[in-house]
Design a protein that fits this description.
With 281 residues, the chain is α/β, with parallel strands linked by helices. The chain has eight helices and ten strands.
Length: 281
C-alpha cells in the first residue's frame, strides 16, 4: 500500500487555490475565443474580448481573474490503496486553503455563521470538501473557487417523472432567463438530473468541471444539451446582459439513477471565469 503524507496535500491545495484564481483553463479561453467569433453584437464581441484580455492579464501579472475568489470547493478522489499519513486529511486541506488565500492575496469571503453574526473567518476556511473513494493508490485534488454572482442564480426543482426531458429543458431555460445579467454571462450551465435533491445539486456542480462544450457521452443527453444551449442563446441576454447571441458557452448535463417517483433537477450556473485547477498526487 502506497503512503502519502498529508503535508503534500496541504502544499498542493495551497498552489491550486492560487492557480485556479490566476489562470483560466485553456478550454474556457478557447470557448471564449469561439464565442467572440460567433457573437453578432458589436458590443457583445467587445465584452467577450475584454474577458479574454482580462484572463490573459491575470495570468501574466499573477493576480486574480475576479475579485470574488469565492468559497473554496474541493473534490477529492482517494485511491482505496492509498494510506494517508502524518495527520488529518480534512485539516490538511483546510490548511492548504488558508495558506493559498493568504499567499495569493485572494479575497476571504467565508462567514462562520450564515444567519446571525455572519462573522468572517478571515482565512476562507472551512472549504466545502467532497470525497470519493476510487480504485488505485493516487489522490486527485480538484479546487474550484465559486463566487456568489453565479451561484446565487442557481436553482433546484423536484419535477415529477411525467415532466420528462421537456420539463428539464423548460426549468433550465427559465432559470437562466431569470438570472439575466447577474451571473456575468457568457455562462456555463451545469445541470444535474437524478439521484435525490442533494445528489442532483452535486451533479450540477460536477458538470461544470467537464471540458467546456464537450458533449455528454450518451447521445440523447448530448442532444438535449445542444437543444437547451440553442434556446438559452435565443433569449438575447448576451454578454454581460447587454444583448447578443452568446448568453452561454455550454450546457453540461450529468445524470444519476433516481426513484421511480422522482425527477430532481438542479441548475448550477458558472460565470465566464470558470475557474478550477487540479493535480494528481
Amino acid at each position: 500500500m502506497r503512503e502519502l503524507d498529508v503535508a503534500k496535500v496541504t502544499e498542493a491545495v495551497e498552489e491550486l487555490c492560487i492557480a485556479a484564481c490566476y489562470d483560466l483553463p485553456p478550454d474556457v479561453l478557447e470557448a471564449l475565443g469561439k464565442a467572440a467569433q460567433a457573437e453578432e453584437s458589436e458590443v457583445g464581441r467587445e465584452i467577450i474580448n475584454i474577458c479574454i484580455q482580462n484572463a490573459k492579464l491575470a495570468a501574466k501579472e499573477r493576480v486574480p481573474i475576479c475579485q470574488d475568489t469565492g468559497v473554496t470547493i474541493i473534490f477529492l478522489e482517494v485511491g482505496q490503496d492509498l494510506h494517508l499519513v502524518g495527520g488529518d486529511l480534512a485539516e490538511a486541506v483546510a490548511e492548504g486553503v488558508r495558506r493559498g488565500y493568504d499567499k495569493g492575496y485572494l479575497r476571504k469571503s467565508v462567514v462562520s455563521d450564515p444567519l446571525f453574526s455572519r462573522k468572517n473567518t478571515q482565512d476562507n476556511t472551512p472549504p466545502i470538501v467532497y470525497t470519493d473513494i476510487v480504485p488505485g493508490d493516487k489522490l486527485r485534488v480538484v479546487v474550484v473557487p465559486k463566487g456568489t454572482g453565479s451561484e446565487n442564480m442557481s436553482g433546484l426543482k423536484m419535477l415529477t417523472p411525467a415532466a420528462g426531458p421537456e420539463g428539464v429543458r423548460k426549468f433550465v431555460v427559465e432559470t437562466v432567463d431569470k438570472a439575466g445579467s447577474n451571473p456575468c454571462p457568457p455562462i456555463i450551465v451545469g445541470v444535474g438530473v437524478g439521484g435525490m435533491m442533494d445528489r442532483a445539486a452535486l451533479l450540477s456542480k460536477r458538470a461544470l468541471l467537464r471540458r467546456t462544450g464537450e458533449p455528454h457521452p450518451q447521445a440523447e443527453v448530448a442532444k438535449l444539451e445542444r437543444e437547451i444551449l440553442a434556446e438559452i442563446n435565443d433569449l438575447g441576454i448576451g454578454p454581460q446582459g447587454l444583448g447578443g447571441r452568446v448568453t452561454a458557452l455550454a450546457v453540461h448535463i450529468e445524470t444519476a439513477p433516481t426513484h421511480i417517483g422522482a425527477l430532481p433537477v438542479a441548475v448550477n450556473i458558472q460565470c465566464h471565469a470558470a475557474r478550477h485547477a487540479e493535480r494528481v498526487l
